[in-house]
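Forum > Structural Biology > Help requests

Title: Can anyone predict the 3D structure of Bifunctional aspartokinase/homoserine dehydrogenase II?

Hi all, first post here. I have the sequence for Bifunctional aspartokinase/homoserine dehydrogenase II but no way to get a structure on my laptop. I'd be grateful if someone could post the structure tokens.
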Amino acid sequence: MRSKQHSLRGIGALGLTVLLSHSSLVLSFSLRQLSGTATRIPGVHLKASVVASPPSSPILQDEFDDVANPRGAKNDWEVHKFGGASLATAELYRTVGDLLIRESEGREHGTIPTMAIVSARGGMTDLLVKVVDSALLNFEQANVALQEAVESQVFLLKELAPPEITDPIEARFRSDGQDILSVVQSLRMLHTVPAVTMEVVTGFGEIWSAQTLHAYLQTQNVPCEWIDARDILVVKSDSSGLGEKGAASTGGVTPLYEITTERLSHWWNNEGRNAGFLDLSYEKGQVPIVIVTGFVAQTIEGVPTTLKRSGSDYSATIFAKLVSAGRVTMWKNTDGVYTADPRRVPEAFPIASLKYDEAMELAYFGAQVLHPSAMEPCIDKKIPVYVRNIFNPDFEGTLIQGRCATLKDSFDSKIMNWRSKSGFVPIKGITSVDKIALVSLEGASIGGANVAERFMGAMADNDIKVLIITQASSESSITVAVPENEGQRALQVLENVFELELSRSKINSLSVATGMSIVAIVGEGMAMTSGVSATFMTSLSSANVNIRLIAQGSSERQIAVVVAAEDTTSALRAAHMAFTLSETTATITLLGCTGNIGSALVRQLQEQKTRLAQEFGVSMCINIAANSKKMVVGENSQCLDVDNLSSLIKSDDALAFDLDKITNLMMADVHPLRIVIDCTNSEAVSEYYERWLSSGINIISPSRKVAAGNLERYKCVRAAEKANSVSWLYESSVGSALPICTTLQDLYETGDKVKSITGCVSGTMAYVLSSFSEDVPFSEALRAAVEKRITENDVWEDLSGMDMAQKVVILARSLGMNVNLEDVEVESLIPEEFLKKEYPDDWNEMTAAQLEDIKCMDAVMLGRLKAATAEGQRLRYKFLIDKETGKCKCSLVNTEATDPLYRLKLYENLVAFETSRYETSPLIVKGAAAGPDLASAGIFADLLRLTRSFSSNQG
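Reply #1:
Sure, ran it for you. Structure tokens for Bifunctional aspartokinase/homoserine dehydrogenase II below:
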């Protein structure tokens, strides 16, 4: 009968008991709801009724006598809270029930009295909200939704227990449904939904859920009972309604502990239904399990209310304080509180421990694992809070206990850069709040204090929640972050408040910007520790994330920024990597993946995968791969199985090669470090460089189409690189794995003046000119080079000198010389008619024809070799870049023994830098540089250079 009485009392407080007659509709309202209502409903007679209130007590009472444990209890109570996701199916109710029994069996100190706070089953609250919302427009639709709610709960109930247990409970459910139907039917006459109506109706989800779990526990022969929290928990509430879903506030709900304690004591002593529930034989292993409805409560006037959306966490810690629990466990579907939202940051991991203050900060800034108010009752009683996974109960989860040091205490510590402390990470987690608007008042020329007072007063007077505030004292400008759905209302309020100043141009403008998110880092360790803000801000810059607002709490436990909504995930991942909470991940688009160089690079990445992760904290993820015809894409930006890349490209699932689609996929990728590796020789691909760089995508390019191509395009690409703080690296385009470009860059940046650069940067020329002789014809030496995969795909590029000429252009441009390919004087080793000849498209046929044609040069080249040998010289193909004269040249020359090229060996490249510092003896870079393995090693080096640069920039 108790549940039925509750239903009638709830409706009485709501004031909507329905008596139908032909001539009138009689509604019973509580006195406090009558004002202003009677005159608005024609033909309706309103009768006031008085709802009995409990004895008066102080409104705020934090000190109270502990509720006595049931007689015989030897251990402290433990409180467990289960959300709707943990109670979505009958099987989950069984899981919860079995877990409660297992937890109550205790640890080393015997059995443990156990209390469980339960939410409505998954989806029930939204369904009951739909019942109320639909009633105004379509009563039949509301009725259908209500029947769905009742029947679905009854269905679960019957799966969990036999009829002798479920029949009376089912009857109560159906009776509750009729009461709800009467309430929503009355709403059509009011043409509005009183806030208390929504709170009463939605609260039935928890009431039904508690009875359902209680029914299952009865089948397990454990002493158990359930409590309707509306009979026990009394609160003072400054607001009405359910509040925003996922909101970080209970809307000013304050528990009245003294009267609540009295009511709970009364329940212990008078209302324990099951025989022996209060006199248990602990020696026999029996322990009580009490199920309590979360979310719902009652005001001092007896009006049903709630702790607002997501308030069941708060219910759990309130009851934990009431029974002086030894611990509270929040059962979720994750392994605790994570360093970031794992849906957005897959590398996130559970945090082992948090302080109460850190947990509240994380919750306030959007971490949905805990409600921020839930910490408050535990702080006073020093009750530890555990966050554990119902699907992985053996995992310890996150422990929350203890207070952070005060700022005053922190001042006594020595300031150190956080990176100087070995193994120290100053933050515990990174979180975000979506759907934010920025409301700004700019350029006020009136008194700053008055502006701030009126601005914030307007927000408070209109119940607009301000999440962050910043003020520029120089301009008397103020910007606040508010929930997006309140942005326009905030703007209208301010326009009214500052109407006079706006008309007189004493305020430049009032504006609102939507589509924003807050990203915050939280941790006690950032107090009095330098370098934290720099690391955070630099990480966002490296990820090309623009910051719209910055704020740091006075406690120095959090730093928050506002960014565009579409940049939120990139910002979270970048910050997570920056504080070494996860390894640096580079997402790679590999173009030319099935070519010689691309295939070699894939092999190297696979071979070095473990070492990269262990030694450098770097993960290389190829999520898009393509050749000239096909491409494959990792689902949801996941890494491709590179061991089977060739098979994937050839499969029916492969897509047609599409540069626009690749570009769109890369731009949608939320990883902060995105890289294109262009192993093609494609003019079409080179046209996308500027667009990629402008979108914050880095490029590594063994291709020379841009670096040695059209000068105007080259300059535009360089400008895009600089403007967007990204990198275009092409070390391998000149000397494979040799550090030629980086050496030149170091000379230039350190202020050395480069006078000239000479050498040979063609592996093909070095091999052929060093290996052909009277016994080995020039054409046969070239054939050997082709077989060893030293040459370009088109060997004419090597022998014509165009390959080396392109590299000369790259080096000359790095010196600041405005050089095009046609500005380089080039000596070709191929007769002119062969350069104009059409060869087959098939590589094997083309190469065979070229090797046959080049035989005509055997005698000519042998004559050049003999002439050089007769003079004690050696034949070499040499380039020259003269900075002072602007001359660039590639030619076949006889080298003296004093020339560094004289000792050039097979497979080698050599570059000599003559500079102001290296005037008497040039700086020489020399080593093997022929073949795809060395070329891919150069790309690999650029990759590591880029990832290290990304990580160090964030520190």
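The mean pLDDT is 84. The longest strand covers residues 429-442.
Shout if anything looks off.
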